[in-house]
Amino acid sequence: MTQPTSRTTAQWQADDTRHYLHPFTDHKQLAGVGARIITRAEGVYLYDSDGKQILDGMAGLWCVNVGYGRRELAEAAYRQMLTLPYYNSFFKSSNPPAIELATLLAQVTPPQFNRVFYTGSGSEANDTNVRLVRRYWDLKGEPSRHIIISRENAYHGSTMAGASLSGMKSMHAQGGLPIPGIVHIEQPYWFENGAGRSPEEYGLHAARQLEAAIERLGAGNVAAFIGEPVQGAGGVIIPPETYWPEIQRICDRYGILLIADEVVCGFGRLGEWFGCTAFGFRPDLMTVAKGITSGYQPLGGVMVSDKVAQVLIDRGGEFYHGYTYSGHPVACAVAVRNIRLLMDEGIVERVRTDTGPYLQRRWRELAAHPLVGEARGVGFIAALELVADKVSRRFLPDRGASGLICRDHCFANGLVMRAVQDTMIIAPPLVMAREQIDELIEKAWRCLELTARDLGMRT
Ligand code: PXG
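A: This is the predicted complex of the input protein with PXG.
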């Protein structure tokens, strides 16, 4: 069924331009072209206001893990809205879905995690992390430990603390960020920074930037290190195997807390429930959002390890932090149902053993294209580097332009594939089947051809 909606696309776009300020958008530019109006979705396909079908290679925005149109999630929300649409978790109150979800999260997360602090989003959860680690060190009697080390080109959200933890210069330039006490080190981006080193050597080199920063700042001033197991919004930066074990060693050596931002990697994206398991490290805190509800409801949280939670509990005193929607009953009821779907239907397992390896095998075929310098990925996340020269890994002269050309061809050809500069990225719904993976690869190849043609490259 692909019929258009009651209003025309032009009518939707006119009101959109008049009244809606979109996130991460050049508003002047958007007003000139009008937004793409997505009206409905089913499985792994989106439909726009002209009835056009688009294969969603980005799972919405890295979040619709179980795919679109799952009645079970709609029914869970409907039932919960009728029973208890809202109540707060302040003033010694709680509610059944929040408790049920907390219990389930303790089961599916690594063993050190038995407690969750709920938020409404990933950004809020990372703000919570900043408050929480500083509170932890205060209670431990080491208040000078307040600096949090993050990485260049990381993405941890768009609130004041989230954007500060993020390592994106364009974000910092707007609004005087980062806030004090946040320091950034090199990202483990072998393709761009690893020239002359093997991935293994480069992984150690990049991790040791953390050690150098701790030595420079003084270990007694450092509270925590935060990182995405695989950087998502930064361009699907997959660290070499040696990176995370070395980060773990350094955090242990200096006694600093390790925070895994699992907003993108969590709930199956890498073919494991969490990215830290895939890369073999053991965080003290873990940021979750997105896939926790498959995006059907806004919800985030911080998983708090026993080591950290015990200090809060034993020392006592109020932690002056929380949100109106912490533990929202409808969002939590949907998350419980979503996690059960992931478990009962073996969705994470399938990505690990079947569709993930298949996607990765087919994705690497794209490396044969003259425009592609590297095709990388793990589980259901992947990237292509568009380059001028495969051997020297030289990017095209107008950095970022070819990525946008390719992205526009993708949309026009019924595929959502995102561009981060000249890196093309995908993170499809975890339920994408083999035939749909074939469709994705075929469309991606065609769009690479069209991009190369526009760039005047011979293919
Ligand atoms: N951490 C990570 C790793 C994320 O990817 C957040 C935190 C913040 O979550 P909320 O729910 O506050 O958005 C994210 C969000 C992009 C893009 O362009 C990615 C995100 C958000 C917006 C755009 O890929 N990720």
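The chain has a mean pLDDT of 96. Residues 434-454 form the longest helix (21 residues).
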